[in-house]
Amino acid sequence: MTRTGSSVWLALALLTAAGGLWYFTINDSNGEAPPAYSTVKVMRGELVATVSATGTLSPLITVLVGSQVSGTIQSLSADFNQPVRTGEVIAQIEPSLFKAKVAEARANLKSAEAARDKAEVEVSEARRNLKRIASLESRKLVSDSDVDAVRSTVAADEAEYRLKLAAVDQAQAALDHERFNLDNTTIRAPIDGVVISRNVDVGQTVAASLQAPTLFTIAQDLTRMQIETSVDESFIGTVKEGDPVTFSVFAYPERTFHGMLAQVRLEPVVEAGVVKYNCIVHVDNADLALKPGMTATVNIEVERLSDVLKVPNAALRFVPALPEAALERARAQLQPGEAILWTPGAHGLEARRVRTGLVGENATQVEGKGVSDGLVVAIPQRKGDATRRRRGLSLF
């Protein structure tokens, strides 16, 4: 045999060997493909049902401190994160204009009081004249028309005096108003707390003509926080005040925080056609780790059972690769509240009817004939399971 012929036969032999090795590495020894599912066991333990939602952290009591008068910020005595006490001065609006208005109102009051005193003197004089005329009338020394004229003068002076009295009250009210505005140029903390927001700087002009501008935001107590979250109407019937709550925030992904559902508000909130209800969760924040505005992923515990049989939810969703007729026969026997578990048997997967109970986030309570702790059931094949790996033969 020539050298060329030997090379050809050698190449064919190598290709045949590689093909055989590839075939036997992707098949079992009996020629069957590995099953297209994974297995888990039915376990006995605790099962918790929760309702999930997201919300935002905020202090229990937050006060927006504004200004009732317009003017220029003269000074600021509080800044971000600063503790303040009730009545403490935290800002001052330039008061010169308001002082001038107080002085003007005080002068108007003095003028009104002088006019009142003058009217009082005129009333006294008119009454004395009426007394003298009345004495002359009794002796028939004056006419009736003169008496009537004096009486009219007394009535007019008395009316003028009452008018001046009202003017004094009006001037006093105006003075009180200007004093009130002057007092409001000094901004004081309404509560004990911490400044979490400052919205003005020195020299900035604030206008309170339409609504009070917000100068500061003060949180009363950051050691106690709340989460305002929304629960879908489909689940609102399962939650109730007093339910325990666990939640996490992005700032501490490895930490689980705890709280309590304090209130389920009755007002519906419609978002994109979905009805939701606000739920308020009270949270202990003694270490001040939680900050206002953080986004919380909330789990409200609605029910907890101990010592029950449970399987992963994936086992109840698993549908094996069987003929459709076989699947329909298995489903046709189901009653309300039942589901199918598929268990490996001598002749492949076998359907097992079970009654389902409490549904948790990852597992569901099951019970039924032949269902026990340790029963092996099928679930969809998981990536990374121990299956035969396909290996090829590299000739180079």
Helix fraction? Answer: 25-40%
Based on Cα principal axes, name the global outline.
Answer: elongated
Distance between the termini: 27 Å
Question: Which strand-content bin applies to the residues?
Answer: 35-45%
The name of the CATH topology of the domain at 51-59 and 220-305 is Elongation Factor Tu (Ef-tu), domain 3
- What is the mean predicted local confidence, pLDDT? 86
| CATH level 1 class label of the domain at 51-59 and 220-305 | Mainly Beta
Number of strands: 19
Give the ordered list of helices and strands: HEEEEEEHHEEEEEEEEEHHEEEE
Estimated radius of gyration: 45 Å
In CATH, the homologous superfamily of the domain at 51-59 and 220-305 goes by the name: Efflux pump adaptor protein, beta barrel domain
> Spatial order of the strands in the main sheet?
2-11-14-13-12-15
Give the second-level CATH assignment, the architecture of the domain at 51-59 and 220-305.
Answer: Beta Barrel
Structural account:
The protein is an alpha+beta fold and 396 residues long. Helices cover 30% and strands 37% of the residues. The model is unreliable at 21-33 and 386-396 (pLDDT under 50).
In short:
It contains 5 helices and 19 strands. The protein is an alpha+beta fold.
Describe the SSE topology:
Elements (H helix, E strand, L loop, with lengths): L2 H23 L11 E5 L1 E17 L2 E5 L4 E6 L6 E2 L4 E5 L2 H43 L5 H40 L2 E3 L4 E6 L6 E2 L7 E6 L4 E9 L11 E6 L7 E15 L2 E11 L10 E18 H5 L6 H9 L5 E8 L2 E12 L3 E5 L8 E5 L16
Antiparallel strand pairs: 1-19, 2-11, 2-15, 3-10, 4-6, 4-9, 5-8, 6-7, 8-10, 11-14, 12-13, 12-15, 13-14, 15-18, 16-17, 17-18
Helix pairs in contact: 2-3
